[in-house]
UniProtKB/TrEMBL annotation:
Keywords: Acetoin catabolism. GO terms for molecular function: histone deacetylase activity. Belongs to the histone deacetylase family. Pathway: Ketone degradation; acetoin degradation. Residues 341-360 are annotated as: Disordered. InterPro entries: AcuC, HDACs, His_deacetylse_dom, His_deacetylse_dom_sf, Ureohydrolase_dom_sf. It holds the Pfam family Hist_deacetyl. Residues 21-314 form the Histone deacetylase domain. It comes from Amycolatopsis suaedae. SUPFAM superfamilies: Arginase/deacetylase (SSF52768). Gene3D superfamilies: Histone deacetylase domain. This is Acetoin utilization protein AcuC. GO terms for biological process: acetoin catabolic process; epigenetic regulation of gene expression.
Amino acid sequence: MHPSAVVWDRALLGYDLGGDHPFNPVRLELTIRLATELGVLDGVELLVPEPAGEAELYRAHSAEYLEAVKQAPLAGWDVGHGLGTPDNPVFSQMHESSALVVGSTMLAARKLATGEATRAVNIAGGLHHAMRDRASGFCVYNDCSVAISWLLENGFDRVAYVDTDVHHGDGVQAAFYDDPRVLTVSLHQHPFTLFPGTGYSSETGSGKAEGTSVNIPLPPRTRDGGWLRAFHAVVPSLLAEFEPQILVSQCGVDSHDVDPLADLALTVDGHRTIYRTLRDLAERHTGGRWLAVGGGGYQLVRVVPRSWTHLIATVLDRDIAPDTPLPPGWLDTVRRAAPHTETPVTMSDGADTGYAPWGDGQDQTVDVAIRDTRRAVFPLHGLDPDDPRD
């Protein structure tokens, strides 16, 4: 069994955009409670993070931007840099709370770099939209970019980043768009239909890094089978060719059918299958080294706690059977907190996650994305875009 690390501290609940903002930290608390009551965390020492320092934050952000984040709670709303908008409202202790999120992903990365763990998970991370000099999409600092930058200076020459959030992983792509050492792969709802409006198949990287940015824009209403068809048509072949030493995955769960902010149609069962697939790919290509972070997910009761409990369990090799009943104590807590929310009863949505592999002679709606992405990227890796065996 691989040694695995779980990073968590209640202080991470301080990344709170306030009011009725959809990025509500209660989703983290409910996840940890569910994982605890199901016994997933039995005997696991949770790692307590420290805030990232300025030197670490400068890996992904400008000094001017850091100063704006620090000053924003004092300066009010007119601070620029994407701060003080409906998506990214200013909140007290914004710099400190955001730096703690980065520090939590950095702690996970350090455990992998030192060999103390082969896998690590930080559900509070995954703030993949933050850019070098501005906040975006609920994200102030980009923990993914900071951690990848650090890994490249601490024993890793080739990092694969796979983003399964419903939104394009634009901040991470931008950070490494011209860096051939980082393969960024994002599967997301088509940018013509969803924020941030980027992530077309034609975005493939620049200079020596051409071919290392990979985007699979999926049509709205794509279900588990279509999502998995697209994933398997593109990602395993590229990982095999790229030969990464570590896999970093952003595991947003806003791709779920009932998520209020987007239009894909995955299930909790689909999410569980994605995590198991990522674990298998890490076993095959990176010696098992896998750093998993959270991300989006805005159905706070029915989706996020179950899906991310499956993620934590998968990282720990404590896989949860889909038909596992939800603990009565957890359900009581949820029903008291959200009495009008329909609550699930098991760790499953009862979905079939089988899929037909691309190249089977059928024509599915996701096949346009598959063909466009393979034709944009595969030749740059010496792969045949039209051959299902590649």
